[in-house]
Amino acid sequence: MIVFARISDIPLDVAEHLDAVAERSAGATALFVGTVRDHDPDATGRVERLEYSAHPDAPTILMSIVDGLDTPAVRIAISHRVGDLAVGDVAIVCAVSAAHRGDVYAVNRDVVERVKAELPVWKKQVETDGTSSWIGLGGLV
After folding, report:
1. Burial code of 25-42, b = ≥16 C-beta within 10 A, e = fewer?
2. How far is CA 60 from CA 29, 54, 88, in A?
3. What biological process terms from GO does the record include (predicted)?
4. Fewest CB within a 10 Å sphere: which of 13, 54, 104, 125?
5. Helix, strand, or coil here: 86?
């Protein structure tokens, strides 16, 4: 069951995602929180911030990514942030609950990997010296 799958321009609330998938029958919950880090292997210097932008169809595509999973009885709440994010800001949250831990680990990883590969959300990486580059051009590109 998809509790929610959304693109957001406001800070993501990790506790909200955990609360959304909580259920009496759930014996396990897996949580992925992706944050902006201060470095990147391809950067020449330190990363200052990321500027995320999304294709207008990104919310629909995110829903179809999650809806298209062949999953056992799980609850999923996922959000991806857009806009300017500083180092340490939360860019993506994915919470998955189910009766057993094996299911939640597998589904959580699958959701996050598919979002990374298929969601048309792009990031401009800005370094402390002012240089920038576009990273992770997946999805509809």
Report:
1. ebeebbbbebebeeeeee
2. 25, 11, 27
3. Mo-molybdopterin cofactor biosynthetic process
4. 13
5. strand
